[in-house]
Design goal:
Length: 412
């Protein structure tokens, strides 16, 4: 479609929420999230709300469904419905999906699709052939419930490494897992399993993952409003963007519920989808005190989720509120080369004096932001004091939003 906004090269999706194709042959999307560039150069889009994966060629307004069926969701098995008979698979098992959230090409052909609500990764060779489950590994014990501490719980992103390792951002377990080929038990690369928090060893509902040329793992720690970097073999993260303390904000040195993440192969810089601020920020390869907006208000971006780049450096970003994917001009590479020096860790904000008059307002502001984030998905902006909070309570673990709860995680 004709591009919208400054520096936008192309728009995928009509902007009308729905599924299927219009009478004039243009593809509707319902809630695009994960995006990637396939081995053939096509744009792959995981339509979270449309329950399918769509592949678009260059300047292709129609695209084609390569996994799942547009608008048709894998039904939930009712264990009480046929209580007198053996429980069988759901109708459409292996062909239909239930809220796909991320996608990438498979090195043996077809696509790998991360199905969020059924908590599994599948390999689709074609829309007409049943998919093979990759995670949980078929050689391991079956995952019957997300209540098991070791289960993968509502993952949001994944990637396939050149070694064949599959890396999954296990969002609701607050960790990143690595499955080596032929191994059923994963290695925890980052995060403390089933434990959320703002410490360097913890994360809180992470969403996006990427590796740089040195093998360092970068993770968007969504509900801590930051990006963490983990050196190979290390589980203690360094904050390279956003708040060390886990506080949201709208400045160029702040983030608010970041999700998608990718690394620019030309200069090693980091691109972050800053979801609640409606922008994509770029940070230098070695870290910096603040980033720069490369896609945002000028392109009329509202709720970005996924971000990726093609070989020329053009940026693709999904906007799940506007039901489109935008292709934006490649930003000029930064002068810095791919990272060869230590990361620049962001400083921890100094503590304020203990005087009640000086500390009361900031504490209330932070408390309000932390409480409102999981409830409304729209924390108070930096420098803005929301309504006076209720009497101080002991801070609870921030709870993210379930994709089926009718809240902003399902449709904002």
């Amino acid at each position: 479609m004709a591009p919208i906004g400054e520096s936008t090269l192309f728009q995928y999706g009509t902007g009308e929420k729905g599924h299927g194709v219009t009478e004039d042959g243009q593809r509707r999307l319902k809630q695009p999230r994960g995006v990637s560039i396939g081995a053939d150069g096509a744009l792959l889009v995981a339509d979270f709300g449309g329950h399918c994966v769509v592949s678009f060629g260059q300047n292709d307004v129609c695209g084609k469904v390569v996994a799942g069926e547009s608008g048709k969701m894998l039904p939930t098995v009712d264990i009480l419905k046929d209580i007198d008979r053996p429980l069988g698979p759901a109708e459409g098992e292996g062909l239909l999906m239930k809220r796909p959230v991320d996608v990438c090409s498979h090195n043996e052909g077809g696509v790998l699709v991360l199905d969020n609500e059924v908590c599994r990764l599948q390999h689709y060779t074609s829309p007409d052939e049943k998919a093979a489950t990759v995670v949980p590994p078929p050689s391991g014990p079956p995952q019957k419930s997300v209540n098991n501490p070791e289960s993968v719980k509502y993952p949001r992103s994944m990637l396939l490494r050149p070694s064949g390792d599959v890396v999954i951002c296990d969002t609701w377990s607050h960790r990143v897992l690595c499955y080596a080929p032929g191994v059923s038990t994963p290695e925890v690369l980052a995060g403390k399993s089933n434990s959320s928090g703002p410490t360097p060893e913890q994360m809180c509902f992470p969403s996006g993952i990427a590796f740089d040329v040195q093998g360092r793992l970068f993770v968007t720690d969504t509900n801590n409003h930051r990006v963490q970097c983990f050196e190979p073999g290390q589980t203690t993260g360094t904050t390279v963007a956003g708040s060390v303390e886990g506080v949201p904000g709208a400045g160029l040195n702040e983030l608010n519920m970041p999700t998608g993440l990718c690394i620019d192969a030309r200069d090693g810089s980091l691109l972050v989808a800053d979801r609640m601020n409606g922008r994509v920020l770029r940070f230098p390869a070695f870290g910096a005190k603040q980033g720069e907006v490369v896609v945002g208000p000028k392109q009329q971006l509202e709720r970005p989720w996924g971000v990726c780049q093609d070989a020329a450096g053009a940026i693709y970003v999904s906007d799940e509120r506007k039901c489109i994917v935008l292709k934006a001009e490649a930003p000029k590479p930064l002068a810095s080369s791919p990272p060869q020096k230590p990361l620049l860790a962001l400083p921890v904000a100094p503590k304020l004096p203990d005087s009640p008059k000086q500390t009361e307002a900031p504490k209330q502001a932070v408390a309000t932001q932390q409480e409102e984030a999981p409830k409304q998905g729209y924390p108070a902006r930096s420098g803005h004091l929301a309504e006076a909070p209720k009497p101080a309570e002991e801070k609870k673990d921030v709870k993210d939003l379930h994709p089926c709860a009718g809240d902003q995680d399902a449709m904002d």
